[in-house]
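Technical note accompanying the year-one report. For the benefit of new consortium partners, we illustrate the data format agreed upon in the data management plan: each record pairs a sequence with a structure-token string. No post-processing was applied to the example shown here.
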Amino acid sequence: MIEFSTADLMDEQKCYDFLVSVLHPKGLGCPRCHKPVTQAGIHRHARAPVLYYHCGCGCVYNAFAGTLWQGPHHSCSTIIRILQGISQGVTTMHLAKELGLDRKHLLERRHQIQALAARASPRTAYSDSVVETDELYQNAGEKRRSASPSRRSTPPSGQQGTRSRHVGQRPASGAGGRGAGNGAGAIRGGR
């Protein structure tokens, strides 16, 4: 899960700094020649806080070059909110409405992020090639609370209730069932 303060979502500079640290853990550099950003000049800063750098090799780049976020010009706070929402399991429809984005585009982005995460994560959670369904649920096998008693009133003695009975259940002798008045001997074929 991405731990990022909701209050910091208001500060684009903090969002940008966080994304640079996540996308470039070894430091931001030229995607072509890999020289550190300290050796590049600032090309433009029209989309603050995102800076565009001009490297000595002629490459113009920003922090999102060569990443999944290259191309779309979302604000840094929007990118973080998308990542948070996906990691927290927020539906694509909800995220799209919240952020005012196209659901189809966001769904494609979600699939790309999930594919990258699957490739990057070790396969230690499930070492088997086949996983049983109950292994996927955290609370599988836990005892449930006992069922609450029925709120229906019981029928008066001698009357059948409105609920259906199981085939094996028979009314008590003398309650209007088979053999009433004959006693147990009628059922057994006696007398």
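Partners are asked to follow this layout when depositing records. DSSP finds five helices and three strands in the chain.
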